[in-house]
Amino acid sequence: MMMKMPWRRKSRSFHLQLQGAIGTIQSPFLFLFTNYCHSSTSTLEDARFLTNNFKSASFTHLDDAIASFNHVIHKHPLPSRAQFSRFLSALVKMKQYHTVFSMSKTIELLGISHDVYSLSILINCFSHLHLVDFGFSVFGKMLKFGLEPTTVTFTTLINGLCMESKIDKAVEFFDDMVARGYQPNVYTYNVIVNGMCKFGKTNVAIGLLKGMADRGCEPNVVTYSAIIDALCKDELVGEALELFSQMRNKGISPNVITYTGLIHGVCKLGQKNQALALMNEMVEQNISPDVYTFNVLIDALCKDGMVSEAQNTFNIMIQRGVEPDVVTYNSLIDGLCISDQFKEALALLKEMVGRNICPNVFTFNILIDTLCKKGLVSNAENIIKIMIQRGVEPDVVTYNSLMDGYCLCKQIDKARKLFDLMVTNGIADIFSYNILINGYWRPQTAKELFKDMCSHGQQPNIVTFSIMIDGLCRQGNLDEALTLLKEMEESQLKPDLVTYSILINVQL
Predict the structure, then answer these.
(1) Which terminus of the chain, N or C, has fewer Cβ atoms within 10 Å?
(2) For residue range 331-361, what is the model confidence (pLDDT) as tens digits?
């Protein structure tokens, strides 16, 4: 039995629903459309320009589009529905979804009836605004008017469901589409495959890939790239490389997205040489690496302590005319800080600002954490002041780093005061408690904090238990430490090597 689909619902409430949706999200431009004064077109030359601009949909600014629209709706005869639809499609490309609704309503008031194409444009707008249920209402209206939906209509709704993380409904709707005799095209498959991959259903996506040819639809580079990227994220790089080879054997040329996914995958496995080889291969094939490709490689090199290689890659990136972004700089600054090159990291921060790339909370957190680990807490406090002045809000990581710095510098009162403020504001996490328990070790205080964690919804983890056991052992309270170890095991947390080493060292 075929499952009931949302688009089979009766569309009797469509007008009320649609008016409610548009009433909530429409732009103020409808007022301009309905109160337009024709005298705004002052010359014949202006009139021709506005008419041609409308017909070609060649505008780049919203104001130009509005002026053209306002001009043509007062012409006689009016443009055709096809011309209006082409115009609205151009607005969709500009992501002016609210304006499309307002203009569409104006067109309707002018007595121009909808067709499949115009209704599909509305569905697309609702989907991009994460209002796919209203998209299904428009779909219902389409069926009520006896209009035959197209593959594009179905694909747009499937994409809307995927965008709202309703992947199961998207698959159901896809299956229903096929059961009703509609032939999905490669774009339909790419939408559903991409949705599957994003939600961890890579095996199902591979199944769809294998079945595409049987349904008369050949996969393209987008289909393969989505699955290759998903396999790499799952660290199934061997399978990804096999699929990559299969793709090339079919004569499908990889693109920058394909290579970036593979480079990311091999980097996660620590195979930096293979990543560099893939980068060289793509360059040899005249496929230009983009900022995302370089970011993946630079980050991997920095995390592996290969900062010089990362800097060389950064220089190549600049030479090739690829503009770095905040992610690029964050990776390099982090790598330099880890390798104890703090002055170089600050110089890079200065260069970053000089390029008009705004540091974000991650940038500042890297610097603050490094300063705190060096015991330069006052410098870290100054960085936080600069951070706030620049409009960047500190987060729990910022404050945890500062609190850890206070503890390392034996400024326990400051650490406790900051911690209490974090708890009051509801931003203290498990790491906050662990830092304070470790840095503020007094048996009674530590036990109070340990109990306080649970009352604030923070469950102790292995690190928490290990800190407590270590502190009790150092105080000579071995029995209490062993009791806590038993509690730890009963809470389904398995003691690790660190926990057992603490106990072994005490008994030795």
Answers:
(1) N
(2) 999 999 999 999 999 999 999 999 999 999 9
